[in-house]
Amino acid sequence: MEALILAAGKGTRMRSEIPKVLHPIFGRPVLEYVLAAVGSVGFRKPRVVVGSGAAEVKKFLKERGKPFAAVAQNEQRGTGHAVMCARQSLKDVKGDLLIWPGDMPLLKRETIAAFIQEHRKADAAASVLSAEVTDPAGYGRIIRRGSRVTGIREELDASDSERQISEINTGVYLFRMDALLGALKNLRSENAKNEFYLTDTIELLAQSGHCVAAFALAAGEESQGINSRRDLALAVKIMNEREIRRHQENGVTFMAPEQTFVAPGVVIGPDTVIYPWSFLESGVKIGRGCEIGPFAKLRKGAVIGDGAVIGSFVEVTRTKVGKKVMAKHLSYLGDAVIGDGTNIGAGTITANFDGKRKNVTRIGRDVLVGSDTVFVAPVNLADGARTGAGAVVTRGSRVKKGETFAGVPARSLGRKRSS
Ligand code: UD1
Ligand code: CA
User: pTM value?
Assistant: First the structure.
């Protein structure tokens, strides 16, 4: 089996300079989600049809570092035409072909796996992955006579009664290669959009006596495609809800799930409480029993130890925060390593960027960082060190064990006599 992803469309409804499939959801392009799902069901080297914004799409595909084969569709004349453009590249494909639109990022691995299984069981020449939805507007409708699938009707070409049909086409299909090639030859573009619709191959195959099936295996939310900015926002909402549900099942409390944003793949330990308006971006790891937010922003590479508190208006990125660390108010912690039990006073800033590179702030265990400290990285604080309120700890400083730094810029006040 081989997979073909259609990603050449203009995405006119997005009204954007950015190719539609590259619009980000939680920082990752729509197409990334499709590729990840296609990969997870075992397709190692998908073919991707590119056209509008081809250079940018190809650049993204290359930077991903995984195998793919690009197929050019120089003029966007419809989904059927996109597949026609891939004919040459599909010459050697003998078995079945999975076709997946590049703008359907919410379909789940399990759904696709079940779809492949049903297609095989039915021994169909073509199968459509469909969904029963409450609002079918904008999607192609599955036309059946009795239980038999006879075709797919696009919204713009549908009659009033066809528009009542709630079973929609997700745009994901499995075709027997020979059947597909035969049907492509007979595609015509006499329709509302003057395009070659891939959907018409289903009717053509049904008419010529092939076994054609549709499996309503996709849940309504999975069939949400990205055609407009509104769809993009809906996809964010759906993905967010999915992730939050997963974390809730793992024992995480969200005070206000709808006011919290959690990217896919974030790790959160049980008994952690997330307060409203917190953003947990991709690549964040949080331990158990932590308190996060309200208004916390955790970015890539934030690793938060068990029992730590990352409070209001605290941003953390590329930073390892030890167990039971308190950073309760108004801080920026970037490119830092913070040892267990350390207290980060309100308003602490790691000045990590010197205009050229990002420098590291190393803070030991049980350190007491005074309010409003600025660490001009690179700096190093040993275990049990302290800074005074408002300290500016200059570049290259090494604060020794038990030593306090205070002042602007900070200078040594010597070591503590006892202990
Ligand atoms: C398509 C289906 C519709 C289905 C819906 C589900 C057709 C005619 N209609 O409609 O039945 O309900 O998807 O998501 O297929 N593309 C190309 N080249 C083109 C045109 C499109 O590569 O010339 C790509 C697009 O980049 C996109 C995908 O094909 O990723 C689907 O195209 P789009 O225009 O979004 O189709 P829909 O109108 O959503
Ligand atoms: Ca679409």
Answer: 0.94
